[in-house]
Design brief:
Radius of gyration: 16 Å
Number of strands: 3
Order of helices and strands: HEHHEEH
CATH topology of the domain at 4-68: Arc Repressor Mutant, subunit A
Helix content: 40-55%
Strand order of the largest sheet: 1-3-2
CATH architecture of the domain at 4-68: Orthogonal Bundle
Distance between the termini: 53 Å
Oligomer: single chain
Number of helices: 4
């Protein structure tokens, strides 16, 4: 379980990076090892203060920003944007 000081540090660093960042970049900025970073991130995701995102190694965003991009909504309701349909390639052969 993370403490509120670590959560505040995480959110402050994320805000300093514009409200969204890759996990590696944010973890390096904080100077935390992976286990501490993952624990604090999990707490904040569970509290709906941040949302996970995509990217090579993943990313996080402040919850209100994630909702604007159509990711996990901060309100707990349905996504604010519809998902794009998956288009499959024609069969080979």
């Amino acid at each position: 379980m993370s403490d509120s000081v670590q959560q505040d540090e995480f959110l402050g660093a994320l805000e300093a990076l514009g409200g969204q960042a890759g996990n590696g970049k944010l973890r390096d900025l904080l100077g935390w090892d992976e286990a501490v970073y993952d624990a604090v991130k999990a707490e904040l995701v569970g509290m709906r203060k941040v949302v996970p995102g995509r990217g090579r190694g993943g990313s996080v965003a402040i919850a209100s920003m994630g909702a604007e991009r159509g990711e996990l909504p901060s309100s707990g309701g349905p996504p604010t944007k519809s998902l794009r349909p998956v288009v499959s390639a024609p069969p080979l052969g």
